[in-house]
Write a structure and sequence with these properties.
Strand content of chain B: 15-25%
Oligomer: heterodimer
Distance between the termini of chain A: 38 Å
Organism (chain A): Novosphingobium clariflavum
Radius of gyration of chain A: 27 Å
Number of strands of chain A: 20
Largest sheet of chain B: 8 strands, mixed
Keywords (chain A): Oxidoreductase
Strand order of the largest sheet of chain B: 2-1-3-4-8-7-13-9
InterPro entries (chain A): 2-oxoacid/accept_OxRdtase_asu, PFOR_II, Pyruvate:ferred/Flavod_OxRd, Pyrv/ketoisovalerate_OxRed_cat, Pyrv_Fd/Flavodoxin_OxRdtase_N, Pyrv_flavodox_OxRed_cen, THDP-binding, Transketo_C/PFOR_II
Pfam families (chain A): PFOR_II, POR, POR_N
Number of helices of chain A: 20
Structural class of chain A: alpha/beta
CATH superfamily of chain B: Thiamin diphosphate (ThDP)-binding fold, Pyr/PP domains
Distance between the termini of chain B: 63 Å
Number of helices of chain B: 11
Strand order of the largest sheet of chain A: 9-8-10-11-13-12-18
CATH topology of chain B: Rossmann fold
Strand content of chain A: 15-25%
Protein name (chain A): 2-oxoacid:acceptor oxidoreductase subunit alpha
């Protein structure tokens, strides 16, 4: 499916450049124009942890990949059809991912001796024939941009900043896109600086015009991707961080509660706080705390006072919140904890994606400290999951962890805007008068689901004390007798186990309710697993896809469902954490498929792993199926 | 703060819980002082929340008939922040200790003070870890023998009041467990809008007995403590001594006062709004100087929760909470129903 081939259903484009080149912005705007053209799409922003790494270096490369097409798209695509490389470092770190015969567009203006050295090229790859496997379109984008913006009298540096718009203009031409929304966006963005707006629009137009002329002479051809036939309705693009924020707001509204959000800046979770500060008219109070611990403790305090307390973080921050989660479990207060997972342990890979906090979410606290865990499968799915987290937290008086990851948080996809009138409300209830004999208050009496009453300070006649220390049933008075601890531990466990009765039964999202192989996923592996299973089924393989949202407690029917398959394969971006949970809960021989490179699974990797179950069961039955990492290589980078 | 003034008595603030502090612990006296003060303030049990961390002091909420939250070690200021932001109408009291508030929770103490959350922070300072059986604490004096410092501690102590001022506190006061003046200090703390920091020296009968005797014992109290009152001269030792400004060193000095003529001796007048004086009073080395007790500093500033409320009002002015509109924001497109055409 190279560019220019008529009838292509889907195309993968990757923009790569220096962190300062505005590649994420270019990708974001290209995404928007793709959505407006009615294509389905999925994106994968991939950027370094450094804000402005030294210019031209290999570790400073920032990339944005988009897969779009005229049928359903669920992944950002394996290998790009088109690569835009804004400098030698971007070429070096990304060219190996490009499909053979794919098109690479190169800005030769940046291929100076100095930049080639920084990218550790001994010879200029544009000249030495090393790019022969690909169609190369190399020309001086820098000079063309300078030329296009000349009339506006910008300084050299400012003029060169328009390069990304020039490139975007070319990309818009290639895929037959309307420029007007981009022009509107630039005019709005630079409303205070009309000259910059004009210059950027001129660069955009120049890039577009270049396409018209270059078509006659080079490998560049225009192609049109038909809009995907989708359900009628209003659509927008949405990132996971936006979806979580909107879902939390919707969840609090459905619970009829004001929301309190305590956060501390951390990549990639901060975006949620950035979004929520703009939604205060929905009864949202945001609090940027002094640290992760204060963020969750303040949220617990707010829940105690009758708000829906929410906190959000990423792996290392979640570790810091562990003790406070125990407090919320012990005091049985509602709380939503969003964890945008990233590569770990410790600081790990701050801007890369991973699913390695599952153990931390399910088991990572002192004592017997169960809490429900939910995982979102995609940016759009994060909206529903956030509502579900609010529902369980308030209905069961418990902290709930919602797992997303760096990929879900940053990536965007089209989203059919739901109608709030179709949501089912779950209003929270507060105790309004004494619930014990002789007008006493019993904060730790539980209903038939094991749920204690929520009591707001300020309510007449209900004064009581709660805390993290073990307590008597009913009164909640300090009691660390053996009987009290046994009874309370049992009660805490039973209540969380009981959540399983209030969640949907596990379905099979593709395939049959039994057979040779089930591929069981959770979280952001949904897209690649779904495509791989679809392709395998087209080849006639008896394989089904089961994707689990409720990680803890697991759906009640999941054990029986998986028992109807001969084999169970569990692909995860960790060393096999969910696999262990499944083995433990159901005594099944779940086979792990691990990838821990900071990059999402490629469809081809999963297809290959699935294939092995049919070409003859692998020798290392029950062991690890290794991943071939050649499709989306982690760039070989020498760290400074 | 309460608008109504319900009539409560000391008894109304007592719970049915068996108090579990060691017999003779200074905490008993502080509890009584608080329970005696609350009725004087017109406080309402249903609108009062005591929040604590971990340690002997932090069992306090269980013994006050109000709302109470015994949280985790050092984190009471953060929990209190969430409570107060969620419901600014509540009276929030924070009970902490030298280990809880100055060591593991030092960070949160700093931030609750600089943000100026409206609450009363009672830091019980007994200069020892009591509940964990007697290890030296961040306020223990150099040389304190303990299970973790058998030949005496070597690290220098922190000064809670100096820490509070350095963190931007707008109210700093000091008292001690059995002091008859403690209720007066607590009342002033309550009346102050904003974070009111009160260090209360507290006798740990088991692990650090009589540590504060050199200024609290009856025989030496008059000579070794100075009770501060706004607008009154800084006199002690039965008005035979006073504190004056040493213009050469720009610090305080002790001067003798003859025949009650404190003005002739150059004795300064206490002004609770003078931040410079407050710094000098908490920096005075004990021994050469008396221990400064009472309200050291009281100069209100806008509170955190009121700023949060105002900010929200500014951000939401003219906006309505329309969820459907919020969800459909941004650049959108419509897919037409082909069958309908």
């Amino acid at each position: 499916m190279g560019p220019g081939k008529v009838g292509a259903e889907a195309v993968v484009v990757r923009f790569a450049g220096d962190s300062g080149d505005g590649m994420q912005l270019t990708g974001g705007q290209f995404t928007l124009s793709t959505a407006l053209a009615g294509n389905d799409l999925a994106t994968f922003p991939d950027f370094p942890a450094e804000i402005r790494a030294p210019q031209g270096t290999l570790f400073g490369v920032s990339a944005f990949q988009i897969n779009f097409g005229s049928s359903e798209i669920t992944t950002a695509g394996d290998a790009p059809d088109v690569l835009v490389a804004m400098n030698p470092a971007a070429l070096k770190t990304n060219i190996h991912a490009l499909k053979p015969g794919g098109l690479v567009i190169i800005d030769t203006g940046e291929f100076t001796r100095r930049n080639l050295e920084k990218a550790k090229y001994e010879a200029d790859p544009v000249e030495d024939g090393s790019l022969a496997r690909w169609d190369v379109l190399a020309f001086d984008i820098s000079a063309l941009t300078m030329e296009a913006v000349k009339p506006f009298g910008l300084g050299n540096k400012e003029a060169l900043r328009c390069k990304n718009m020039w490139t975007l203009g070319l990309a818009l031409w290639m895929f037959d896109r309307d420029r007007q929304p981009l022009v509107d966006w630039l005019n709005a963005k630079f409303a205070q600086h009309p000259v910059l707006a004009q210059a950027n629009v001129a660069a955009l137009n120049a890039g577009h015009a270049y396409g018209e002329t270059a078509e006659l002479a080079g490998p560049l051809r225009k192609q049109h991707i038909d809009p995907v036939p989708s359900e009628p309705g209003l659509y927008r693009t949405i990132t996971g961080a936006e979806a979580v924020s909107l879902g939390l707001v919707a969840g609090a509204q459905l619970a009829e509660l004001p929301m309190f959000f305590g956060g501390y800046p951390i990549t990639p979770a901060s975006a949620i706080l950035h979004h929520l500060v703009k939604m205060k008219e929905f009864g949202v109070t945001t609090f940027q705390a002094e640290d992760e611990i204060a963020a969750i403790c303040a949220a617990i305090g707010a829940s105690y006072a009758g708000h829906l307390g929410v906190t959000s973080s990423s792996g290392p921050g979640l570790a810091l919140k562990g003790e406070a989660m125990g407090l919320a479990i012990m005091t049985e207060l509602p709380l939503v904890i969003v964890n945008s997972q990233r590569g770990g342990p410790s600081t790990g890979l701050p801007t890369k994606t991973e699913q390695s906090d599952l153990y931390q979410a399910v088991y990572g606290r002192n004592g017997d400290a169960p809490l429900p865990v939910i995982a979102a499968r995609s940016p759009a799915d994060a909206f529903e999951c956030a509502i579900e987290a609010c529902r369980i937290a308030t209905q069961f008086m418990t902290p709930v962890i919602l797992l997303t990851d760096g990929y879900i948080g940053n990536a965007s996809e089209p989203w059919k805007v739901p109608d709030p009138a179709t949501f089912t409300p779950f209003p929270a209830h507060f105790l309004e008068g004494p619930n014990g004999p002789d007008n006493t208050v019993l904060p730790y009496t539980r209903d038939d689901r094991g749920v204690r009453p929520w009591i707001r300070p300020g309510t007449e006649g209900l004064m009581h004390r709660i805390g993290g220390i073990e307590k008597a049933l009913g009164t909640g008075n300090i009691d660390y007798s053996p009987a009290a601890h046994q009874a309370q531990t049992d009660a805490r466990k039973a209540r969380i186990d009981g959540v399983a009765r209030a969640i949907p039964a596990q379905d099979v999202c593709l395939g049959t309710e039994g057979g040779t192989l089930a591929v069981v996923g959770w979280g952001s592996t949904f897209g690649p697993i779904h495509q791989a299973v679809r392709r395998a089924r087209r080849r006639g393989l008896d394989v089904s896809h089961v994707h689990v949202r409720h990680i803890w407690p697991l759906p009640e029917n999941l054990g029986d469902l998986l028992a109807r398959f001969d084999k169970v394969l569990v692909p995860e971006m960790n060393t096999g954490q969910f696999k262990t949970v499944l083995r433990d809960r159901f005594l099944i021989d779940a086979v792990p498929l691990s990838k821990i490179s900071g990059q999402p699974f490629a469809i081809a990797e999963l297809e290959e792993a699935i294939g092995r179950f049919f070409d003859g069961i692998p020798d290392n039955e029950g062991g690890v199926v290794s991943v071939n990492d050649t499709q989306l290589p982690a760039p070989e980078i020498e760290q400074p | 703060m309460n608008d109504m003034t319900p009539v409560t008595t000391l008894k109304d603030w007592e719970t049915d819980q068996e108090v579990r502090w060691c017999p003779g612990c200074g905490d008993y006296a502080i509890l009584k002082a608080v329970q005696r003060t609350l009725p004087m303030l017109g406080a309402d049990p249903k609108n009062t929340v005591f929040v604590s961390g971990i340690g002997c002091s932090s069992r306090f909420p269980y013994y006050v008939e109000s709302y109470g939250f015994h949280t985790i070690h050092g984190r009471a200021p953060a929990v209190a922040t969430g409570i107060k932001l969620a419901n600014p109408a509540l009276d929030v009291w924070l009970v902490t200790g030298d280990g809880d508030g100055m060591s593991i929770g030092g960070n949160h103490t700093m931030h609750v003070l600089r943000r100026n959350l409206d609450c009363q922070i009672l830091l019980f300072n007994n200069e020892i870890y009591g509940l964990t059986k007697g290890q030296y604490s961040p306020t223990s004096r150099v040389g304190t023998p303990s299970p973790t410092s058998p030949v005496g501690s070597v690290d220098r102590p922190a000064s809670p009041c100096a820490f509070a001022l350095g963190s931007g506190a707008r109210f700093v006061a000091r008292g001690y467990d059995v002091s008859k003046d403690l209720p007066e200090v607590l009342q002033a703390a309550y009346r102050h809008r904003g974070a009111a920091f009160v260090e209360i020296f507290q006798n740990c009968i088991v692990y650090n007995k009589d540590r504060f005797d050199d200024f609290t014992a009856k025989a030496v109290a008059a000579d070794n403590q100075i009770q501060l009152r706004h607008g009154e001269p800084l006199l002690f030792a039965k008005e035979t001594k006073g504190l004056a400004l040493d213009l050469e060193t720009l610090s305080l000095k002790v001067v003798d006062v003859a025949d009650g003529d404190w003005q002739a001796a150059g004795v300064a007048v206490h002004n609770v709004r003078n931040r410079g004086l407050a710094h000098m009073l908490v920096e005075m080395p004990f021994g050469a100087f008396p221990m400064a007790l009472g309200v050291i500093y009281d100069d209100p500033a806008p509170t955190f929760e009121s700023a949060v409320v105002e900010e929200r009002a500014r951000l939401t002015a003219g906006k309505t909470a329309d969820l459907a509109r919020l969800l459909g924001k941004g650049q959108t497109w419509v897919v037409e129903d082909r069958h309908a055409q």
